[in-house]
Amino acid sequence: MLTSRQRGYHITATVRSHEKIDAILKTHPSWKNNIDFTVVADFTTEEPFDDIFHNTTKPFDYVIHTASPLRFQVNDIRKEMIEPAEMGTTKILRAAQKYGGSSLKRFVLLGSAVAVLNSFEDMTKEGKPYTERDWNPVTTEQAVERKDPVLGYNVSKTRAEADAWELMKSNKPTFDLAVINPDIIIGPMIHPISGPRSINQTNQFAIASFIDGTHKDIEGLTFPFYHFVDVRDVARSHVDALTNPAASGQRILLIAGLISPQLVVNIIRENFPQLRERVPEGNPSQILPPGIHPTGWDMRVSIDILAKGTNEKRWNYIDLKQSVIDTVNSMLEHRVI
């Protein structure tokens, strides 16, 4: 896999503070001369994005937008999750349209599979596989009334993506849009690490929580979703999508396979004997929690689009075993578990 830097792109990256820049460069010193950093303290307003387009010495060819709140410990679901996700997406899109100029070819948006699946899916029976044409019917009112941050996150990603498509339809900018929709993202960490609290949210609940004592047993434990993708495949899909003609105007599903508490603990216990005493055994042969039969995904269209974006014209996912092993090794290396 070639990174965007290895492919010859000059990158301008946004961060929330100057302290973030220092932390990133301390973690990755080699990035200092290859990436320009700019501070966007508040990504829900247009002004900082306007400034980025104004101040660049070379017009942008592509924009990748990945910023969106992913914290489940919130007090106000509407103001802390839903509104920032919607506003962050629409503000940078509007700035791109106003100031991107004729050089801007494509806007790649990191969406989520939660904008596709049904939050109220009956998990006791497998339904018709989801496709790129499906949309989550969950509403802001349902998330707020139930005080459910998982529903709040689902709404935030659904609304942000829907707003992006509506803006493209209404404003007809010169650039096009591609949206990448991954499910649970796990994988090795390259962001600055300063302790266990630095573990990102999905790695924490899907992997670290079975090692750090959060779950002494997995009996009765469920996940909000049961499909995953490795973060390296997510990154690769975004870079490939920049120049892939087949990605134009497409929602692209990114689903590598099944994940469950039992599958994760089986992999950790088998491959990390030094951690075995800390990881609950569960029932190794009971892959999914009793009574859980999640709906699958019809990946034919998305796999075809993803394949067309590679040199080999073939797309292969990192499997769950490799992803979990690499993630746990990353956590051990950073001494956060």
Automatic annotation (TrEMBL):
Alphabetic keyword roster: Oxidoreductase
Protein family (similarity comment): Belongs to the NAD(P)-dependent epimerase/dehydratase family. Dihydroflavonol-4-reductase subfamily.
Entry protein name: NAD dependent epimerase/dehydratase
Domain of life: Eukaryota
Lineage: Eukaryota, Fungi, Dikarya, Ascomycota, Pezizomycotina
Location of the Thioester reductase (TE) domain: 53-213
Organism: Penicillium chermesinum
GO molecular-function terms, A-Z: oxidoreductase activity, acting on the CH-OH group of donors, NAD or NADP as acceptor
UniProt keyword annotation of ATP-binding present: no
A Pfam family of this chain: NAD_binding_4
